[in-house]
Amino acid sequence: MGSQNAARAVVFSPLDDGTGRAQLVTQRLTDGIISGMLKDGERLPSESDLAKRLGVAVTTAREALDIMRDQGLLRTRRGREGGSFVTYDRETAAKLLDDRLRSSSRIELRDLCLVTSALAGTAAEEAADRASDEDIETLTVLAANADISTAGGARRAAARFGLEIAAISQSPRLVREEIRLQAESGPILWLCLTEEKYRILNRDARGRVLEAIRRVDPAQARESTVQPIRAAFEWLIEQRVRES
């Protein structure tokens, strides 16, 4: 399964929280749309199929879809080819992310940073020990072809590089967790990439990670991976203070 297909599978995987609240379903699907894993015009599973995949009641799935329609993230078509279709709008997505940032506490943001740093840092350490010449060539191509001219391009570059590092670690669980975190937390974590200096910082950090892997230096690979995550956390805190 390719990384994009695996990421989409995580969007529709069972929710960890057993309460099955509609807001949890809404957040999962919204993150999938904002992160680009669910594309504009894409048809979602039916209410019953969605409920089964996420492990919630059909009424919960229906309520979540209604919320997303009200937010302008979905539209409904009737008939044989009908269903719920993604309607991605940058302004709507940006507003939702701003609202989410304002509603997140410092503790929640710090926890996001800690979990992401622990996961990505461990994957980088393992990759430095296990990378083959072919793996290094793949990372080199990814780094060279990264488009950081826009926030969206920079997010995709960070996501692809992170997934490749996790794959090189040869830990299926690390790969699954990396994909899950990207789907659930990537949109808010990398809000800083709207600013050019953070896009450059991330690009340069990937270069240092790649060099550390070439030198078989696990400690430096971890540190270079974690550094832009810390910077992203600090940006989130500063932005939250500015908007409060």
UniProtKB/TrEMBL annotation:
PROSITE patterns xrefs: HTH_GNTR (PS50949)
Residue ranges occupied by any HTH gntR-type domain in the UniProt entry: 19-89
Highest rank taxon of the organism: Bacteria
MF terms in GO: DNA binding; DNA-binding transcription factor activity
Keyword flag Transcription: yes
Metal-binding in keyword set: no
Keyword annotations of the record: DNA-binding, Transcription, Transcription regulation
Protein name: HTH gntR-type domain-containing protein
Organismal lineage: Bacteria, Bacillati, Actinomycetota, Actinomycetes, Micrococcales
